[in-house]
Structure formats: structure tokens, C-alpha cells
Amino acid sequence: MLGDDEDMFESVAWETPSAGYTTAEVPTPTGPGFKQSTDPEDTTEERGPHDPKWEGFLVSSVQDPIKELAETKDAYVSYLVSAKTNLSIFSTQNPTVRRRFQDFVFLREHLVKDFPACVVPPLPDKHRFEYVTGDRFSPEFLERRRQDLDLFLKRLSRHPTLQRSTLVRAFFESTEWHVTMHQHVAHPPGPEPGPGVLDNISDTLLNAFAKLRKPDERFLAMRDGVDKSAEGLHSSERIWNRLRARTSDGNPESGEDLTSDYHDLAVAVQGLGFLESGITDPLNHFSNTLLEYSALLRHQWTEKTTATTDPFLVQLRSLIAYSHAHRAVLRLRDQKQLDFEELSNYLSGVTLERDRLSAVIAGRAGSTGLGLSAYLRDRVDALRGADDDRSRVERMKKLDSKIKELQEAVTTAHETSDAFSDETLKEQAIFQRAKEAEMKEMLGSLADGQIEMYKSSIEEWERIIPILQRIRVDV
């Protein structure tokens, strides 16, 4: 949430590349989530009713964080947002603007409201000081936030519905973003939800703790898959942290990790060289190789933050947060179904009461056999002097009016629940594609970094082999 002393609508002036900023070269979209055929006659892939379909591509990047109003108390950071697209909704194929963190927050909050059935990717908290030790204007903090914002926009850009929204287009293109925000708040897309039957029903009837009477097996399996995926990501995070601690805990003085063991071994070999006068030089070279390898491991795990270790954890945690956003959509879908079931049950109760009154008036039956509640209602009406046919007729009219209203509400709730379920099935396919693309990139980067580290290690060990081979052993 924004502070009271901060203006949500304070905009950053739009800058063109000629103002000293250079537009990043955005790569051609490839991989899962970017297979975006716009040809309606393309039959290379059979599409199901819930398969996503893109109308074009949108590839984005967030770069060049700059501290604005640096010498004032209102200092903030702006980021260069650029994109490449062939979507018809955009007025240019290469939009470029500068945006601040609050602009990203506004974009996400209103996309969640405008597209409740879509899995809108999460944003990092405004103050996440676990990023680094230091202030929010430090280079380390800004780079980590830039990475998070870049991933947020890439996820939006991959989404076939969100990439075509007018708010996303304005975010990439608008030169008067503060005006766009005001207009969006004043005139949100779609009709304002008015008070309906659900608002007039007691909270004891519709509540967050009620369970679905007829849970859909498709969504039960979907939720189970999301939970297991998140559990696997959490396990990977714990194991990776343990691996980091065992290899190098970042404290050279602790002596409790693998790099310290290699350092201690190097010292021992060097001491052995003083005792073995005939092979002192080779042993010293071997000791130096052990020290180099120890330093290489420590650099890989504690200092090389642009390679594999730290970014791997960051993206792992971001995938966990993304899974939580997906689960929130599944919970909302369940709530839509629950609304329909509870309204249907309420309608049945009202209809039963109307039928009971009709039977009493017609003289065909009393409250006997219609349950304890009907009997008690008759007794209360008798005590209040309201047990005559006239009062029953008035109540029947009110019940008929309520039944008509409830029937309309049940129909609307049924249509809403079905439509939300269809959209949720589409979102599952979209989310799965995006997750596969990110996991491929994340694990590929991890593998590349490990290969680079072990190639350097091989070079170090290969240099020592000829020196060791020159040791003469007389038999």
C-alpha cells in the first residue's frame, strides 16, 4: 500500500531515446508461451476449446533504473520500459516510456480487478530489504527490483488476454500516464456491481467457510497439481540453500563448509612440502591449485550474483508467488460455484415455504408433516394474531416476488460460475505454458553457470598435472 504522503498519480515524464536513453534491443519471441500464431487457418496444432490463442506477440524489457529528484525528499526511481509488438491495439511497434514502481503497482491492482479470472503475476513488496543490506537506492537493491519488474512485465506480455488490455497498452505507450490512471479509476471498464440478492442474504447463509456440495473433479485435480508444484518449489529452495551453506556459507572464518576444507587441505599440502625437500616445488604448486579451486567455489556461491546462485533463488521464489496467484484464482472460482449452490438452496427453501402457505390456504394441509420450522412458524403467527388467510396471502405475494428475484439471481450466478470455470480452464493452460518457459530458462541458466564454473576448475587442475608428472620416483 502507498503511504499517505505519496501521490499514487504522480507520473514520470515520458522520455524518448533522443533524450539520452537508449532503447533496448528486444529479442524475437521464442519458446513456450510465445507460440503465437495469428493465422486462423493454421492447423499445425489441434486446438481444444480451452487452449489459449494469441493474436500477436508482445515482448517487453525493464532496464536503466535512474534516481529522479535525487537531492530532494521526494526522490524516487524510474525505469526504462520498452517493448516490441505486432498487436493491432498498439499504435507503435516499439513503445518506450519511463515508469516508477508505483505505476507497476497501479497496473497490477487494476488488472486484478478488471480480469478476476486471469492469473495476474505478483509484484515484489515495495520495501523488500531482504534483497540486500543497504538503502532502497543502492545499486544492488535497484538491480534486484529491476529484475523483478522485468519478470512481472514479461509474464503479462506472455498472457493472451492481459497483453491486449487497454490498461497494458496505455502503460507501454501513454505519455500522460497520470491522466490515464485518473480516468481508469473514475471510469473502470465494465458496469459497476450494484447491490443484489447476495448482498441481502445473511452471512450465516453465504460464508467463506461453506463447502462445495458438488466439487468439480477437474478443479480438484488442478488445485492438487498447483499445491504439489508449489511444494516441490519450496523443497528445491530448501535444498539449494542447504547446498549453498555446505559449499560456502559466505564466512571464510567459520571453517564449516567445503571451500574451507579445500583451504585447509592446501595448507596441509604446503606443510608437507617443507618436509619433502625433493618435491617441495610440485607440492607447493598443488597447494596453490587447491587454493585457487577453493576461491573459485567461494566466488561461484557467494560473489557471482550475476551467474546462477542468487538469481536462481530469486526466480524460484517468484515462481512460488506466481503459483499462489494461480491458487487465488482457483479459490475465487470455487466461491462463484458456492454462490450458485447457496442461492439455489435458498430458492428451494423459499419455494417450499410458499407451497406450504398455498396448501394451508387451500385447506389441503396444515403445518403437520412439513417439519418443525413450519410448525413453529404457525404457532408464532397464531400468537401474533397473524394466522388468518389474509396475512398468509400477503406473505405469499412477498414470497412470489422474492422467488422471482431469486430465480433471476440463480440464473445469473449459474452463468457466472460456468463462464468463470471456462476461463479458469484456459488460465490453467496459459499458466502451465508460462511456468514451463520460466523453468526451462531458470534451469538452463543454472546449468550454464555450473558448466562455466567446472570448465574453469578443469583448467586449474589440468595445469597441475604436468608438474606432478615431472616428479621422479626411483624404483
Automatic annotation (TrEMBL):
GO terms for molecular function: phosphatidylinositol binding. PROSITE patterns: PX (PS50195). GO terms for biological process: autophagy of mitochondrion; endocytic recycling; piecemeal microautophagy of the nucleus; protein transport; reticulophagy. This is Sorting nexin-4. Belongs to the sorting nexin family. It comes from Phellinidium pouzarii. InterPro entries: AH/BAR_dom_sf, PX_dom, PX_dom_sf. Residues 57-179 form the PX domain. One of its GO terms (cellular component) is endosome membrane. Keywords: Autophagy, Cytoplasm, Endosome, Lipid-binding, Membrane, Transport. It is a peripheral membrane protein. It is found in: Cytoplasm; Endosome membrane. Residues 45-54 have a biased composition (Basic and acidic residues). Residues 1-54 are annotated as: Disordered.
